[in-house]
Design a protein that fits this description.
The complex is a heterodimer. Chain A is of the alpha+beta class. Helices cover about 25% and strands about 35% of the residues of chain A. In chain A, β9 and β10 form a beta hairpin. In chain A, α2 runs parallel beside α4 (about 135-150). The longest helix of chain A is centred in the middle third of the chain and has 18 residues, at about 165-185. Chain A is elongated. Chain B has helices at about 1-35, 55-60, 65-95, 100-110, 115-130, 135-160, 165-175, 180-190, 190-205, 210-215, 225-230, 240-260, 265-270. The radius of gyration of chain B is 24 Å and the shape is globular. In chain B, α3 (about 65-95) runs parallel beside α6, α6 packs antiparallel against α9 and α7 packs antiparallel against α8 (about 180-190). Chain B is built from 13 helices and no strands. Classes of the chains: A alpha+beta, B mainly alpha. The interface of A and B includes residues 79, 88 and 103 of A.
């Protein structure tokens, strides 16, 4: 069990910067998910924490100690790789014991630890098998078992679920969460899948182009994205962005006008007056409502209907808005492609972004 | 249709038979010759008329042939051992560690294997004399490395590259040293390649003639190919074919046996990347 701190980490490959000035603290026992599109540097960051890659600048602290120059094995971290990286010529048992052997832990003790890990992961009956005789999910468990037996202070998981099929992935996700809760081990999990991030994390760090865009608990990122990128990356179907005009300011309240002319009033989160031009209102699909009657804030035409069963996603074209709006209605919503639709917005759930994409005001 | 199918089948079998005769007949003829006495040799037959093993006895009686076989064995096994050890270490560096000049080293290794043996003969002779290894078995092992190392390094490097990097990183995180990674993780994974290159090196070392002829002097250090070449008859004008054939048969059999024994391994080593998680 150990905390992890990253202080001013930078890294570039040749001239291409991969990470710039990463500062991040992970509390002891916390489950942190680093999420971002491919190529954002998230795996590099994980490898720097593991010691498999050297950073150009900055320090890695684990358990309060400066480990920047320590070899991987000394850092007390265990890693689960995307490909699992099991040793193909060893049985599951030998795979899990290999690290203990290197650490010169006695035969009886290491055997006890392997058996215990196998029990936790329910793979006791598979210990004599070699990796090629195991299914994807079973290999995954052995890889996690290898991390557990090491009794490392920090688990590093590099897209561990991405090689599993959809059903198994959901299942393993739940198991992983349960496991982390019971072991209470500090875990850093890297993924490009925002659903994984939302469901697993105590806190999420969103990474883009080698920079941390926002760090926070899943729901706070969902409801209070710090910028347009976080808003669009977290949540599916994606957040809608509607261009708006600033109308008037009254203390910390700012009123903006939607393309149709309707007003929406928001609370500024800084003292600063946002610029007039290029304001964008971010609103999640479930916060748009199709109205049967009453005053509409936007009108448009449904041109695509996605039935998900529990919900229906309508793609709506509105005059004066370039992109389609996505509206999430109930599974029994009556609209069909071609219908005219009147849309209401719950202003309390909106976020206003300025022209550089920074969140400047929220609904409530 | 049926006739045609039979024709094709017969044709194919004939072709196979042709190949078989081409490959095996020389060996068979050597066997037959080795079982015949001196003058019978000159009346060609395909079945020995009165087979006897006089020639085989003569091989061992007229020179220290047992000693030659032992020498060949020591040299071949020693060469294979040193080759595999050096090649494995080199291949680990060339296949898995990034360093400046890696490609250059690989190409130089390949270039070395292109020199004809004769071209390095005099230089090698000087080297071996300077080291005091002339007319000694270690001198032969040393010179054979020139023949066996280049291809061994290339084959093993290619195989080492096939091993996914994450496996090595997992071992690093598990606390394994470079040496442990090489011996406990990488070498077991490239075992088929080790067997293949080891066998090829064994065959080369067992059959090598030119270096063995040049770098040995006395009968006690001769290897088998030289010993056979130096078998002479009662007079200058007579070549004892029967004895030479008997000697050839004796030294071919162990090699053939080993190759057959490891046949399955060779095939899998030559054809497959062989490493699937």
């Amino acid at each position: 069990m150990a905390s992890v701190a990253l202080v001013g980490i930078t890294k570039s490959f040749g001239r291409r910067p991969a990470l710039s000035d990463i500062n991040l603290e992970i509390r002891d026992g916390e489950f942190l998910v680093i999420v971002g599109p491919s190529g954002c540097g998230k795996s590099t960051l994980l490898r720097i924490i593991a010691g498999l890659e050297e950073s150009d600048n900055g320090e890695v602290m684990i358990g309060g100690e400066r480990v920047t120059d320590w070899p991987p094995a000394r850092r007390g971290v265990a890693m689960v790789f995307q490909s699992y990286a099991l040793y193909p010529h060893m049985t599951a048992f030998e795979n899990m014991r290999f690290g203990l052997k290197q650490a010169r832990i006695g035969r009886a003790e290491s055997e006890r630890r392997v058996r215990r890990a196998a029990e936790i992961l329910r793979i006791s009956h598979l210990l004599d098998r070699k990796p090629r005789e195991l299914s994807g999910g079973e290999r995954q468990r052995v890889a996690i078992g290898r991390a557990i037996t090491r009794e490392a202070g920090v688990f590093l998981l590099d897209e561990p679920l991405s090689n599993l099929d959809a059903g198994l992935r959901g299942h393993m996700r739940a198991e992983l969460l349960e496991l982390q809760r019971s072991l209470k081990v500090t875990t850093i999990h890297v993924t490009h899948d925002q659903v994984e991030a939302m469901t697993l994390a105590d806190r999420i760090a969103v990474l883009r182009n080698g920079r941390i865009e926002q760090v926070g608990p899943p729901l706070s990122l969902y409801h209070r994205p710090a910028n347009q990128f976080v808003g669009s990356f977290i949540g599916a179907p994606q957040m809608n962005f509607i261009p708006v005009d600033s109308r008037r300011r009254d203390g910390d309240r700012l009123t903006v006008a939607l393309p149709g002319g309707a007003d929406i009033s928001l609370t500024l989160n800084g003292r600063q007056q946002p610029e007039q031009k290029g304001l964008v209102l971010g609103i999640r699909p479930e916060h748009l409502h199709g109205l049967a009657h009453g005053p509409a804030q936007l009108t448009g035409r449904v041109h695509l209907v996605e039935h998900l069963g529990n919900a229906t996603v309508l793609h709506i074209r509105c005059p004066q808005i370039d992109a389609d709006l996505r509206l999430q209605a109930s599974g029994t919503a009556p609209w069909q492609a071609g219908d005219e639709i009147a849309i209401g917005i719950s202003a309390a759930d909106c976020t206003l972004f300025d022209s550089s994409g920074i969140a400047v005001a929220h609904g409530s | 249709m049926i006739v045609r199918r039979i024709m094709v089948r017969v044709g194919f079998l004939l072709l196979l038979a042709g190949f078989l005769v081409y490959a095996i007949f020389p060996f068979y003829y050597a066997l037959v010759s080795s079982l015949q006495g001196g003058s019978e040799l000159f009346s060609p037959t395909y079945l020995p008329s009165a087979p006897d093993i006089d020639n085989y006895v003569a091989v061992f009686r007229e020179q220290p042939f047992g000693r030659s076989i032992l020498n060949s064995f020591i040299v071949a096994v020693g060469t294979v051992g040193v080759t595999l050890m050096l090649a494995a270490l080199a291949a680990y560096a060339l296949g898995r560690i990034r360093f400046r000049g890696r490609q250059g080293v690989l190409l130089a290794t390949l270039a070395i294997s292109m020199f004809p043996q004769v071209a390095v003969l005099s230089g090698m002779f000087e080297l071996i004399r300077t080291l005091g290894l002339y007319d000694a078995l270690p001198g032969l092992m040393l010179s054979y490395l020139i023949l066996t190392l280049p291809f061994s390094i290339w084959v093993l490097t290619a195989f080492m590259r096939e091993v996914p990097g994450e496996i090595e990183e997992a071992a690093l995180l598990d606390g394994a040293s470079r040496w442990t990674i090489l011996t406990r993780i990488l070498l077991p994974l490239v075992a088929p390649a080790l067997v293949t290159t080891g066998l090829l090196a064994l065959i080369i070392a067992w059959n090598e003639f030119l270096f063995a002829l040049t770098f040995t002097l006395s009968a006690e250090t001769r290897t088998v190919p030289v010993a056979i070449a130096l078998i002479s008859g009662a007079t200058q004008h007579e070549l004892p074919w029967g004895i030479i054939m008997a000697a050839s048969i004796i030294v071919t059999i162990p090699l053939a046996a080993i190759v057959l024994l490891f046949q399955g391994r060779i095939v899998s080593g030559l054809t497959s990347g062989a490493i699937k998680g």
